[in-house]
Design a protein that fits this description.
Blueprint lengths: L1 E9 L5 E10 L4 E5 L6 H8 L7 E6 L2 E2 L5 H8 L2 E4 L11 H6 L3 H4 L1 H5 L5 H13 L15 H14 L4 E5 L7 H18 L2 E5 L3 H7 L2 E6 L2 E6 L6 H8 L37 H4 L7
Parallel strand pairs: 3-8, 3-9, 6-7, 7-8
Antiparallel strand pairs: 1-2, 1-4, 4-5, 9-10
Helix pairs in contact: 6-7, 7-8
The structure holds adenosine-5'-triphosphate.
The site of adenosine-5'-triphosphate (ATP) has 12 residues, from helix 1.
Amino acid sequence: MLTLTGVGKRYPTGDRALTDIQLSLPKGQVMALIGPSGAGKSTLIRCVNRLVEPTQGSIRLEDVELTKLSGSRLRHARRSMGMIFQEYALVDRLSVMENVLSGQLGYVGFWRSFLRRYPQEAVAEAFRLLERVGLPHAIDKRADALSGGQRQRVGIARALLQSPKLLLVDEPTASLDPKTSRQIMRLIRELCAERELAAIINIHDVALAQQFADRIVGLRAGEIVFDGKPSELTSDILTTIYGEEDWDTTPEPADDDEDGEQVTHPAEPLRATQSHSVPRQSLLASGGAQ
Ligand SMILES: Nc1ncnc2c1ncn2[C@@H]1O[C@H](COP(=O)(O)OP(=O)(O)OP(=O)(O)O)[C@@H](O)[C@H]1O
């Protein structure tokens, strides 16, 4: 449903951020984008929704060529791409409900949403979404009275209110503790499955990427150097992506989830017995391999 062909980006400063990116993302697939700082992860996500202009190549969302759009057609196409941000991008002085309803901006127009007149069906859907993300009791709270995890749940509900086909997620857990990070990744994954939504998640935590993504793409210096299943991410590949590091030297974690439940891994986790594999525990250290 999303296809990038030969996508390149050179910033006006001369920095080449992306080179010849080829990617095809089917409906419902959750893809984690990993790579060192400056590899081009944010640039790639921003090229898709045209917050950054690609300088080469084609980006198609279903049958729409995104790189050629401007004005109202670009605004229309952006409605089908929900953005979820690291810092949540909520309006602090507004309530949770108002923040979620701001996801309707692309539909109801600036003045109508500024004046806070939203269609009844949008309000009903916002209630349903807040219930689904686990915030039914926080509807009237101001956004600045919420914890980081709750703020991210509001950000997720806001992105879903625009009924996107694709989620673009930029470091959703970077400001969260390990337990909340897992809960947020699990929620994103479940919602993608429920709604057959594709997602690109830019993430630094390799262990989280492995546990909650269907597919991992590794970027290095603007090029794709790995594209495969979480179970295929070996220490050799991590070295290709991030450079030399001893990936095997962190303590072994408990096998249970934070709530005592057995962890379900959507993808086969790394096993220490694989040849050249990275023991899972080596990646489960907070922050992962950065
Ligand atoms: N607005 C900009 N102007 C010029 N160069 C930029 C701009 N934004 C990013 N770059 C450059 O493009 C390259 C890729 O940056 P990008 O932010 O996409 O990487 P990243 O993988 O998301 O990094 P991080 O994980 O630190 O967020 C870097 O060399 C960066 O310096």
